[in-house]
Amino acid sequence: MESASVPVSPGKTAAPRLARLVGFNVVSATILAIVAYILGHKLGAVVGHHTTWNTASDQDDMAIFFGMGFAILGWMAGLGFFNYPLGRILGRSISLHEGVEEGSAWRYMRLCTDHKVVALQYLVATLFFFFVAGLNAMFIRSELTSVHGTLFPAGNYLTLVGLHGTMMLMMMSAGVIGPLGNYLVPILIGTRRMAFPRIESLTMWLTVLAGFVLLSATLLGGFPTGWTGYAPLSDEARAGIDAYLVSFLLIGLSLVLVGLNIITTVMTQRAPGMTWNRLPIVVWGFVTTSILAVLSAPVLAAALVMTASDRTIDTTFFVSSSGGSPLLWDELFWFFGHPEVYILALPGFGIVLEILPVFARKPLWGYKLAVSGLFGVALMSFMVWQHHLFMSGINANLRPFYMFTTELISIPTGFIFLNGMGTMWKAKIRFTVPMLFCMAFFFNFLFGGLSGVFLSDVPSDTLTHGSFFVMAHFHYTIMGGLVFALMGGIYYWLPKMTGFRLNEALAKVHFWTMFIFFNLTFFPLFAAGMLGMPRRVSSYNAALHNLNVFVSAMAFCLGLSMLIFLYNLVYSLVFKRERAEANPWQAKSLEWQLPSPVPVYNFERLPTITSDPYNYGEPDAPPVADFGRARVAMGEAGA
Amino acid sequence: MSATEGMALDREPPETLPRNFAVGSKLLASAVAFFFMSFVFAFFYLRALNTAHSFREPHVTPPAGWGVAILACVLVSCVALEGGRRALTDGSEGTWRLAALTAWLVGLAAVALQGAEYYNLGFGATSGGLASVFYGFTIWFGVFWLGGVYWIETIWAQSVRRPASPDPDVGDPARLLRPSADAALTYLYMLAVAEIVVFVLLYLVK
Amino acid sequence: MSTQSARAGEPNHARNFAILWAVATAIMVPVMIWVIGPHIPPGDMTNDTRAQHDVNVVLSTLAMPVLMMVWTFLAYAIVNFRAGRSEAIADGPPLRGGPRIQLTWIAVTAFMVVGLAAYGTIDLLTAAGHSGVGSGEGPNPLAKPASAGKALQVQVIGQQWFWSFRYPAYGGVETPTLEIPVNTDVEFHVTSLDVVHSFWAIELGVKADAVPGADNTAFVTAYRKGSFQIRCNELCGLWHGHMNSTGHVVSGPAFTQWIAAQETKYAPVTKQLPPYSTSYYPIPTRNG
Question: What is the pTM of this model?
Answer without folding.
Answer: 0.94
